[in-house]
Structures are given as structure tokens and as C-alpha cells.
Amino acid sequence: MGIEANPPALAESRRNRIHDEYIEGDARRVELPPASFDAVMMIDLLEHLEPADGLALLGKAQRLARKKVIVFTPNGFVRQDEYGGNPLQVHRSGWTVEDLRGRGYRLYGIGGLKALRGDLAIPRRPRVVTRPLANLTQPAVYRHPKHAFHLLAVKTLSSEEGG
């Protein structure tokens, strides 16, 4: 199930058949029963919310998930304005390793060294140099997420069978 507040993004997701079911709405306001899903994923979402709203949504995700909550977000505040006619693209907060680790998440670095990427996570110029460098630094930042452009945060809520 996918939840999306931007109608054009929702339509694109439907065209691409990314999810089996969709809810058009703000994830902060969508009401679903507790433990509705094995896992709740928030991919490039938290940074678009004010910090207090992001914290509340993390709590809501834990209530909705039976096993895991997975978050993908830039490492720290990364300025981003509206683009593509979508005002929801503005970044309103930044999330750090400490923010998420302090809430019980395991952290992994994604995207290579933070300094190698700029707006929209695109490698800085000259891209012929920074793109391969970002790829080469990926294994190091995976284990040292403080230096990565993106954070992948995983919180296990209960033991899993076979895992």
C-alpha cells in the first residue's frame, strides 16, 4: 500500500504499478488500525516535514508496523525548494545518525560521501569525476553513515521468524 499526498505523483506511481493499493492523502492524517503492516517504509518523506511532525510520524509508523520501520532520508538538512510544480518537495527538516540511532534505529550510509553530491542528490560537477568517486566511497559510508549523503535507518520491532 502506498500513501501519497501529491496527485500527479500518485498517478505516476499507479501507472508504474509500484503498489497494489493506494491512499491519496497526508501520511500524518491517514488513520489505519495498529499493526496493519509487517513493515512501514518512509522513503524520502521525513525531510519534507517539520521536526515535530516527523517525530510524530515515526511514532505512528511504529504503531502501524508489526516487525520493522524503514526510513530513507538525506543525512542532515539538505536544502531543497519546490520543484516540478510540487510545493511538497520543500525540505523542512534534517535527520542525523544521532537523531535516528537515539530512537533505536540501525543506520547505514547510502549514496557515497555527502560532499560529492549536491541538489537532488545529483553528483557535483565535474560529474565524470564525482559519480565514480561516490560509487567508490559507497562501501565505506555504508558502515560509517555519518559521512554518507543518505541514511537508511531500520528499526526492528519484534523478532522475525528465521531472522
SSE blueprint:
Blueprint: E1 2-4, H1 7-15, E2 22-24, E3 37-43, H2 51-64, E4 65-74, H3 97-101, E5 106-113, H4 127-143, E6 148-156
Parallel strand pairs: 1-2, 3-4
Antiparallel strand pairs: 4-6, 5-6
Description:
This protein is of the alpha/beta class and 163 residues long. The chain has a domain at 32-110 and 149-156: Rossmann fold (3-Layer(aba) Sandwich). 28% of the residues lie in helices and 25% in strands. It is built from four helices and six strands. It has helices at residues 7-15, 51-64, 97-101, 127-143; strands at 2-4, 22-24, 37-43, 65-74, 106-113, 148-156. A four-stranded mixed β-sheet has the order 3-4-6-5. A two-stranded parallel ribbon has the order 1-2. The mean pLDDT is 95.
Q: What is the count of DSSP helices, taking H or I runs of 4+ residues?
A: 4
Known CATH architecture of the domain at 32-110 and 149-156: 3-Layer(aba) Sandwich
Which consecutive residue ranges, at least 5 long each, have pLDDT under 50? none
The CATH topology of the domain at 32-110 and 149-156 is given as: Rossmann fold
Shape: globular
DSSP, total strands? 6
Helix content: 25-40%
- End-to-end distance: 24 Å
Our Rg estimate from Cα atoms comes to 16 Å
Class inferred from helices and paired strands: alpha/beta
| Binned strand content | 15-25%
Q: If you average the pLDDT, what whole number results?
A: 95
Main β sheet profile:
4 strands, mixed
If strands are numbered along the chain, what order do they take across the biggest sheet? 3-4-6-5
Element order: H for helix, E for strand: EHEEHEHEHE
CATH superfamily of the domain at 32-110 and 149-156: Vaccinia Virus protein VP39
CATH class of the domain at 32-110 and 149-156: Alpha Beta
